[in-house]
Amino acid sequence: MAHTIQDKQKLLHRVRRIRGQVEAIEKALEAEQDCDTMLQTIAACRGAMNALMCELIRGHILHHVHDARKPLTAEQSRATETLLDVIRAYLK
């Protein structure tokens, strides 16, 4: 989990943004706002969650699946980026 600690501030910023979006959804429900506004906020929240998931998956791959003490070969780097691209596309 050391990779998570290295990126702690970046990850916390993402989580705080997501929390703000969820709170906005809650307030919109309480205020009985338009569905359009809530749907846009929910979609933004989902996108932020997916981005957070991708960031954590990337760190996991680079630090747990691959030996982080050794540099990636060009082939491993391409394979890693391909896998992350597939995951990003799946999460959209």
SSE inventory with pairings:
Elements: H1 2-6, H2 8-30, H3 35-65, H4 74-91
Helix pairs in contact: 2-3, 3-4
Multimeric state of these chains?
Answer: single chain
Looking at the structure, what is the overall shape? elongated
Please describe the biggest sheet, giving its number of strands, its sense, and whether it closes into a barrel.
Answer: none
CATH class: Mainly Alpha
Describe the structure.
This protein is mainly α and 92 residues long. 84% of the residues lie in helices and 0% in strands. Helix 2 (8-30) runs antiparallel to helix 3 (35-65) and helix 3 (35-65) runs antiparallel to helix 4. The protein starts with a helix and ends with a helix.
Keywords summarizing the entry:
single chain, elongated, Methane Monooxygenase Hydroxylase, Chain G, domain 1, mainly alpha
